Amino acid sequence: MEEAVGKLWHRLITRAAGTSYPGAAVTLKEIERTAGVLFRALGGDGGLRLAAATHDSHGARRSLLARLAGSGEKTARARIDDTTLRLPPEISIFPQRALNHDLYLWLAALAAAFALTEESETQPDFSPDAELHRNQSATLHVLRTWPGFAGRYRRLVAATLASRLDPARLPPAEAERERALRRALEAPGSVTHLPAVPRNAPPAMPIPLWLAPAHEHAPEPVRTHTEQGSGSTTGKDEKRAHRAERVKPPEKKHGLLMLLRAESLLSVAEFIKVDRSLDDDADPDAAAAAANLDHLSLIGSGERVASKIRFDLDLPSAAEDDAVLGDGIPLPEWDYRKRLLREDYVRVQEMVANPNDPRAAPTPLPERLRRSARSLRQQFAALQPGRRWLKTQPDGSELDLDAAVRAATDRACGHHPSEQLYLALERRERDLACLALADLSLSTDTWVSDTARVIDVIRDALLLFGEALSATGDRFALCGFSSIKRGNVRFHYFKHFDEHFNNRVRGRVTAIRPGYYTRLGAAIRRATTLLDAQTAARRILLILSDGKPNDLDLYDGRYGIEDTRMAVIEARRHGLTPFCVTIDREGASYLPHIFGPAGFAVIRKAEELPARLPMFYAQITR
Q1: What number of H helices and E strands is found in the chain?
Q2: What is the pTM for the complete model shown?
Q3: Span 408-419, pLDDT tens digits
Q4: Are strands 538-545 and 489-495 parallel, antiparallel or unpaired?
């Protein structure tokens, strides 16, 4: 009975406090695609990823009902930094769902203008007056550049002012500050600075229509040294963010945990600097436990769960590794932070299957793929150009009887006869060249079904792709890549352009195995050089991938994405047609920035890749 009464009281007091309206809530997951498209369409940086903001305590005054209900203590403020546009994971501050929806769109538009108004600032200023100035400038930019937002903005301002504390109930200094903030909302640009308040005064209530400074409560990104393949998703797509800090690991390992009384234990949310051994199996409740914490403490211990033995199995020894060709090829890399192309910054090491490796021995097409290969060869044989006879030619291999009869008739009638009396056999050829570049990183060791891994799916896709293109007569090459930092980008050759697709090539493809990491930009630049040497009228670079570009060094996050994007731009300048086929379910969030809206395809079921890859090629070359 007490529990039922408590729940009823909490529901009533929370509703009376009016700090949130769960029935009118709009989540970031619902609006993510629309907000992302709007942000980029209005000139926002296409390289920024969209993510959730953290819920942080603001420390501002709250109404008596809000304090009784324990609500409104935290808020998620939108902000933008060099790599991320962060929006609240949920907006429920207005009683109308349409207003909460409009607030997401307004924040996306304001973020697009925010970067433009900051370009002239040489030194960032994080004072309250600077935040006031930046948000007013960005608001004016939005309203002047895109007048269609004016009506939406007025409705949002009216709803925001109605939800804030009445200045008449605040102390005089805080009341003046609140009135200045209200004027800044109603007439952007009219307030140059905020009135001074006593040092012990609480901060002003955050304004949901403005962006917070980029430095404020910015969660530290968690970098992992193993890639997340397509099979590693948990099925929960909820976007969360946490405030985090890096802490040093304890000096002593596996020592005595703690000797203290139970009543002196810290709370579960506080970090205790104690070394605990790692289990072989990952904790299935780790994500739920992290979701309940306001602050995460991260330790770079260098150890990984269930990875020590796997590391030894996945990485081959030098004796069993592929044969190295040459001393390596230096290539540039794009640094988006400095807007500079670093010359000879990475080294591509060309490799081919070791001739002494029994796994790379010549082998026929596997029995399980022969039926599919036969069907593909029949379909692609129709793409092979035929031959036709051209009539009334000045010369040729045979006489055109119809033209000869007409010429004799013209001569008998006294007209000048035609001299085009022959048939010529025209031979048509497909002037195409294609290089298929496969991602062989460590993440391809992920299982996508009970019987196959990602690397197995890629292997079958390359075999069927080779069978299909052999039927058309198109020139093609098969390659793969992985990387270990910038000094060792491994570029594997399976088939050169001048080779036939035979059992020797099939043996090389059959012997492929997971490698290291994904420095995609360097691999694309090397493939561009190889494909640019072909004299075909159309040259296609077909990329097979299962995740984002990444490596052990700085080549992660936006750095890798921007370098890959620059490599794709360079390939297009050489007249190539890059196209990416990925099995990464999150590919639609970053691939449009790299390859453009029509330069990629996402396959939801990885096991469909072998059958669909040749079809993508047929569509591209149609």
Answers
A1: 17, 20
A2: 0.72
A3: 888 888 888 887
A4: unpaired
